[in-house]
Input
Amino acid sequence: MRRLLPDPGETSIDELLDGYHPFESPPAGRPFVGANMITTLDGRASIQGRSKDLGSEVDSEFLVKLRRRFDAVMVGAGTIRAERYGRIVRDADARAKRERIGLSPDPLAVIISGRLDLPFDAPIFTCGAGEVLIFTSSDQPVPETATPTRVKQVNGPIAIEKVLGHLRNECGIRAVLCEGGPQLFGQLEAADAVDDLFLTISPELVGGEPSPRILEGTLTEPRRKRLEELLEHDGELFARYRPRR
Ligand SMILES: NC(=O)c1ccc[n+]([C@@H]2O[C@H](COP(=O)([O-])OP(=O)(O)OC[C@H]3O[C@@H](n4cnc5c(N)ncnc54)[C@H](OP(=O)(O)O)[C@@H]3O)[C@@H](O)[C@H]2O)c1
Output
């Protein structure tokens, strides 16, 4: 892997993430928020309804290792429906390493769902490990799941600022990684609550099929970012953007 910015040279994912401790610096009233997204060259966020096949093995490795640095991993219902999901940190050594840097072995899995139309047969609910917290405006009961699952029922629309406040103040979450999808990412950006955006640019054009962009929803104005870091592997670009606050 080549680092193009800030100091050109060879690097690795481990070197890159070594010492990345977002949980050490939560802003007031909410967790530190990282977002990890992938786009094609023509701005698409999925192929045939999924994002899994957009990235290379290096991108998957980056995703897996980035998760190890956060107290919680958050996704929207659309992403759970499309990608399903299993245990967030599957590797036992990685869970032990998390504990050594002051994190719980398993990150809290946070799901935002209006309708509670979730795949309760997906491994994340059936594996029995870790914990899931669902924010929903539905009053439907949640089926019994092997993985401990809590529900925070919200009256009316779910405001992302309130979700973040709840995670920080009621759950002690210091850093949360949002893995999408586009609607949830859009709400976080609209709230100006993304502290680190890890964006993979896949070197391919996918064309025609309907597919979202990485951000769906409305921003009151264009949000210009500062490029903090840029890496390259086999034509795939890995950028880290920070806000210009
Ligand atoms: N390229 C990438 O980096 C990336 C990352 C993740 C996903 N994806 C792709 O994106 C697609 C899914 O897109 P998406 O925008 O639907 O994903 P999403 O943001 O994960 O899910 C949107 C859904 O989440 C629920 N939701 C989100 N915010 C809410 C709120 N404030 N209040 C209530 N409900 C809320 C709603 O579901 P309900 O009301 O129906 O429960 C909404 O329809 C899939 O094809 C997936 O593969 C791409």
In short: The radius of gyration is 17 Å. The longest strand covers residues 32-40. Residues 1-15+33-45+55-64+191-205+224-245 form one domain.
